[in-house]
Structure formats: C-alpha cells, structure tokens
Model the fold of this input.
Amino acid sequence: MSAALVPTFAALGDPTRWEILVTLGEEPASASALSERLPVSRQAIARHLAVLHEVGLVEPVRVGREVRYRALGSRLSQTADALAAVGAAWERRLATIREIAEGL
Amino acid sequence: MSAALVPTFAALGDPTRWEILVTLGEEPASASALSERLPVSRQAIARHLAVLHEVGLVEPVRVGREVRYRALGSRLSQTADALAAVGAAWERRLATIREIAEGL
DNA sequence: CTGAACTGCAACTTTCGTGTTGCACCACTG
DNA sequence: CAGTGGTGCAACACGAAAGTTGCAGTTCAG
Done:
C-alpha cells in the first residue's frame, strides 16, 4: 500500500514532469504538442509520459494518428488521501508518546 | 505554492528516505540509531535527514550529545491537502471539457 | 584526564536519470 | 501512391544523487 507510493512520488519529484502534468491538467495533449510548449525534445517528453503512465497519473488516448494524454486527477487525490493517512498516524503516535512522557 | 511541492516529492521519492521517515514516524531517533536498523551507513542517513529537513518533513532535537529527529506529520498532511486540491482542479477541468463536447 | 560515543565535513566512486540525436515505422492527407 | 506529421526504439553523453571510507571535532562517562 504505502510502499507503492514511493514510485509515484519519484514521478512527481521531477520539475519537467510536473510541468507536463500541469499542462495536461488544463487540456489533454500529445507528446509532440507538449514539446512545442516546453523546452524539451519530444522523445524526452515521451519518456516522461511513460513514467507518469506507469504510476497511473496519466492515461493515453489514441485520436487518429496521434496519442493524446490526459491527467488523472482521481489518482492524484487517491495519493493525497494515502499521504494524509500516514501524516495523521505520525501525529497520533507522537501524541501517544507525549502522554506517556507526561505520565511519568 | 504548488511549485514548492516538487522538492518535497523528490524527497519522498527515495526508498531509503521513505524507510527513514516511517521509522521516525514510529519513534524519534538519531542518525546513528537509524544506521543500526537500516542497511546504510550513518553518513548516508545523515545526508538523507538533511534533505528531509530542508523540505520540512523532519525536525532535529538535541538530546545531550546526540541529535534526534522526529517526523512532522503536519507537514505531510499539508502536502496532502495541496495535492488533493490540484487533483480536484484537474477533475473539474475535465468535467468542463466534457460538458462543452456534449454541447456541440 | 583518558577514552568512548556521536556528530560533522570532505573526497571519491558508481550508479541512475535526464536529455540529446538519429533512424525506422505507421497512419492520415492530397 | 507519394509525402507529411506523429510515434517508437536505440545509442550516447552528461550531470546529479546515493553510498562509501576516512578524519577531525565534541561532549559525556569513568
């Protein structure tokens, strides 16, 4: 469960990939279209899209001879929920430790 | 705002760093103590802790001659909220596009 | 005061990721 | 049926990150 989060964070941790995601969040686009907006080659973007697809943050849709990608907000929200759960667990744990410390 | 998220994701994207965080989430510990639990040298862990501290996911606490680190769940929850907001925006955007498409 | 434990800094190696260029293949257009 | 625009794969270069070892500096214990 939480172990599967790491590759997702690694995918989100690259600035170029984040820009791609933000752009796709506004409107679905192909790798070629993205390469005209961003200062990177099409092949580099295609590779980024493959990484994003592996962790389920993006989905390819064939439209004629081009492949458009759209950002999956649901997957992002799901990741956010998992993160929030972990954060809450840490805070709870810390609160318990404090109670024990005060009890001494 | 969201741009500052990227370094945080990069920090969370490393498996070793994630293990460190999980361990600290259970109980605060020093770099030396962590190096005995994890299969990495103390210096490597110290460097990871510095990275985690830079993005505010961890906090150092001096206890005598040792420096213990504790995981900050609040920072994690904050990141989760920002993520959820972005995900919701994408879904909303996509819903709008669909409405327009249906309207044609 | 001697020693042990913990931390911090530095140099070095090695692996991995990002980005590039080049070429081949496929699908739509005229 | 050419030709163009889009995609995919492969090889290569470069820089950053992760890990290691070694050494110096501190602070607590005996």
